[in-house]
Amino acid sequence: MEQLANFTDDISSSVQPSEFSKFSPALLTFAAVVTGLIMLVGLSGNLLTVVALLKCPKVRNVAAAFIISLCIADFLFCAMVLPFAISGFWTQTWSHGGVLCRLVPFLRYGNVGVSLLSIALITLNRYIMIAHHSWYGRVYRKHNIALMIVFSWMFSYGMQVPTLIGVWGKFDYDPELGTCSILPDENGRSSKTAMFIIAFIVPALLILICYARIFWVVHSSEQRMREHQRTQHSGAGALNNSTDKRSTIKDNRDTKARRNEWRITKMVLAIFLSFLVCYLPITMAKVADSHVHYPVFHIAGYLLLYASACVNPIIYVIMNAQYRAAYAAALCCPLSRLTGLTSEKWNERHGYSYSNTRTALSQVSLGESRADPRASMAPAGPAR
What we know:
The chain has helices at 2-6, 25-55, 62-80, 82-91, 98-131, 136-139, 142-158, 161-164, 192-234, 241-288, 295-307, 311-319, 321-332, 335-338, 344-350, 354-359, 368-371, and strands at 170-174, 179-183.
């Protein structure tokens, strides 16, 4: 830490022409304006998502706990990283001193790690919910959820501490990029490759494996259900009307619960794919066009990278009616109407029902015992 304290603030006096010098002023101005818009959308969208999930009990399930962590990481990215990106586009260099030159990339890489690990934890939650439902109540207890979230933050930032103190690479001004990034230390070591493998490749592979398994389980389940329905129809003459009606109602409830879980799973997949779409272009640009022959390609990559911090709330609105209702309630409804979101009528309208999820894919809620007084009269199940 002594190196950090002694790090001087005279970077701007020794800067060299950066890759930004190869871009036209109009292109850089456009990039600065778009980054500013992304920052505003990201700040408001992520903050609104956190407020909506905290205020509306029926969307405060296990996945929502990880989504709140993801939103906080994206909010911090917009608040603490994007202003310096706008400044970089505008001034074409770094002019904020040496201490910030270390802290800003530390925050940038840390928030990216938290975002991807949060997506991985949400995907793992979906996988256990669908493929190993009997484990769900044991795995997703409150203290386990808290430990998972704390781990994602401590791991993402903790693995960068050696770089921050200069013993495994260092955060410093990169004259070629015109900004602060990870550079080799005095011994020529850098944490970039290891960080890319541990914090990006491994979680991405985990996510892909989980989704492959999820799709297989869902496909097999649908085949079994179709076979079960055909068997029921073929033997319908042997059943009395009341038994047939009860069976039909149960099948409809199970189908509704499975459909709701599948919608959430598809939303998480969209979040992961958007993460890849936002991060791959700038990675490809740095590798395929290291000498910046195509400036537009690089600017587009930067803007997509920054857009990753604001795109998730848009996905929630487009793909999930429950989140749309929660947003509307957080924006427009007084507290008395927000409590109305705990009613069963609202649940059924948007696909939630405790009876449904107990008979199929249980929707474990962080506040279930408080939100639904009938829970104490329900048959005993796994502890939550």
